[in-house]
Structure formats: C-alpha cells, structure tokens
C-alpha cells in the first residue's frame, strides 16, 4: 500500500539552486525523514546510506584509527564490536549488521592472511546492490541495476589496456557485466555491449574524456535517468528515494572540490534546463 507525503515532498528545496544554496544537509535531512516517514519507508531510505557503513566497517576491520568515522552510516563502532563478539560467542545470536555485512566480517576474521581492501570493498558493494534489488521496492531495484551497470561501464572505461589477467573489478551480475567480461577476454580495448541501449552511446561519448570528465558525464546520465524514473511518482516514497540519491550526488561533487563542485553543479543545472526545453518543444 502506497503512503503519501504531500507536505514533505511539496516543501523539498529545489536541487537546481545554484552553488548548492538551499540544499539540505544530508545528516539533518535524514533525521527529519526518520521523524516523518513510516518505518517501512524509512528503512528503504536507510539502505541508501549503507555505503557509508562499508567505509566504517572497513575502518573497524583494518584498525585504521586515522581514518575518520563517517557520521552518515547506520551503525556505530559499538555495533561492529558487538557483531564481532557474537561471532566469537559459542551461542548462536541474531546479527547486529545486515546479513551481507556480517558475512563479510566473518570471512575477514576467519582468514589468517587478511584479504585486501579492494576485494572486501567489492564483496560489500555486491551485497549492497543485492540488498537494494531485493528490498521489495520496484523503483529501488531498477535504480540499483542501473547504477551497478553504469559503474561497471565506468570501471571498464577507466581500466588500462591490456586488461589485467585476473580481469576487472566488475560488480554483481547482469547482462552488462557478462558482455563486458566476454569482450575483455577477447582482447577488445573498448567493449561495446549492445544492451542496454544507453551503454554503447555512453562508452563512445566518454571514451575520449579525462577521468574526472568521464565520471562527471556518468553522473549526469544517472541524474537524467533518475529524473525520468521519478516522473510518475508524485508524493510517494519513490520521489523521496530519488531525491536522497540526487542530494548525495550533489554533495559528493561539492565535497570533492568546493570550487569545481560549484561549477559542475551549475553545468548540471544548465544541462537539465536545456533538456527540459527540448522536451517541451517536442
């Protein structure tokens, strides 16, 4: 059953404001959502913050005290310590962490020779997308597949040719990954999967760009796709989920570089306005 959040959604600040003015602080905005949303809907929002938990979990496992604890995660260092204690206990107890995070911790703790950080990041990321896809929300599942495939395309683009013998750090499952892996095995420098439709166009356009430009181009595609996905969701949780994803994107670019972040936000806004004008003129 859909729940409607008319007042909340109608009052959301416009993310098209220049230089991020009026953009909500993510931590504060999340706190407000927790107070307003139905628990089942807030759970879906909380899933989008799992990547911050990955950072904190890896910090805990590798004992990197110099790395700051990320405040946007769902779980604390105490939660990680409790999960570890339950693994050590002779009694079988319910996990504190989501299943895939608990499994990653157990695997790490059981290895005499600790796995590399990149490998652990891959396992956590795959668990994250699997969780989104099976969370029971069609919008979230569609977005997870799209973002996963886009990130795999970006990984293929950023890899130096010839590719490593052990392959690339491609995530999850799906046709895009399978096609990329197959064409990489055949020694093709720029894999061009025929499906989904956007894949070939993205790879052809982005292959001539620098790393930063390429990543920006990918985020621009993601933004436009989110706009399309959200179009028919007016006052339900899907609109809020899309807004949170967009807000994370804007804040991420601002944090990467305050000056260039402002410039890129401006370009993003201008690009979206041009797209809107094109649609209106059709």
Describe this structure in words.
With 282 residues, this protein is an all-alpha fold. Among the domains are: 1-47 and 237-282, no CATH class; 50-136, no CATH class. Helix content is 66%, strand content 0%. It has 13 helices and no strands. The chain has helices at residues 6-10, 26-36, 39-47, 50-62, 77-88, 99-110, 117-133, 138-158, 175-185, 197-206, 211-230, 237-256, 258-281. Helix 4 runs antiparallel to helix 7. The radius of gyration is 20 Å and the shape is globular. The mean pLDDT is 84.
Characteristic terms for this protein:
282 residues, mainly alpha, 0% strand, globular
In short:
The protein is 66% helix and 0% strand. The chain contains 13 helices and no strands.
Overall average pLDDT: 84
The assigned structural class equals mainly alpha
* Distinct helical segment count: 13
Tell the overall outline.
globular
Strand content: under 5%
Distance between the termini: 35 Å
* Helix residue percentage: 55-70%
Instruction: Write down the Rg.
Output: 20 Å
Which regions have little confidence, pLDDT < 50, spanning 5+ residues? Answer: none
Number of strands: 0
Q: Provide the succession of SSEs.
A: HHHHHHHHHHHHH
Largest sheet: none
């Amino acid at each position: 059953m859909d729940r409607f959040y008319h007042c909340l959604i109608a009052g959301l600040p416009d993310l098209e404001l220049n230089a991020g003015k009026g953009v909500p602080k993510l931590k504060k905005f999340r706190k407000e959502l927790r107070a307003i949303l139905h628990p089942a809907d807030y759970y879906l929002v909380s899933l989008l913050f799992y990547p911050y938990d990955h950072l904190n979990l890896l910090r805990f496992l590798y004992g990197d005290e110099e790395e700051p604890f990320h405040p946007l995660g769902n779980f604390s260092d105490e939660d990680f310590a409790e999960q570890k204690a339950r693994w050590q206990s002779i009694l079988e107890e319910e996990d504190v962490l989501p299943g895939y995070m608990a499994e990653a911790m157990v695997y790490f703790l059981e290895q005499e020779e600790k796995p590399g950080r990149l490998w652990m990041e891959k396992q956590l990321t795959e668990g994250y997308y699997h969780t989104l896809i099976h969370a029971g929300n069609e919008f979230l599942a569609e977005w997870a597949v799209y973002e996963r495939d886009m990130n795999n395309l970006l990984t293929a683009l950023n890899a130096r040719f010839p590719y490593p013998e052990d392959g690339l750090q491609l995530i999850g499952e799906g046709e895009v990954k399978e096609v990329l892996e197959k064409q990489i095995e055949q020694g093709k420098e720029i894999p061009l999967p025929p499906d989904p439709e956007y894949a070939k166009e993205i790879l052809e356009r982005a292959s001539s760009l620098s790393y930063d430009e390429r990543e920006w181009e990918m985020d621009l595609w993601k933004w436009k796709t989110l706009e399309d996905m959200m179009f028919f969701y007016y006052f339900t949780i899907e609109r809020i989920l899309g807004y949170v994803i967009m807000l994370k994107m804007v804040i991420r670019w601002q944090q990467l570089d305050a000056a260039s972040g402002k410039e890129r936000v401006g370009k993003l806004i201008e690009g979206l306005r041009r797209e809107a004008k094109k649609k209106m003129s059709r």
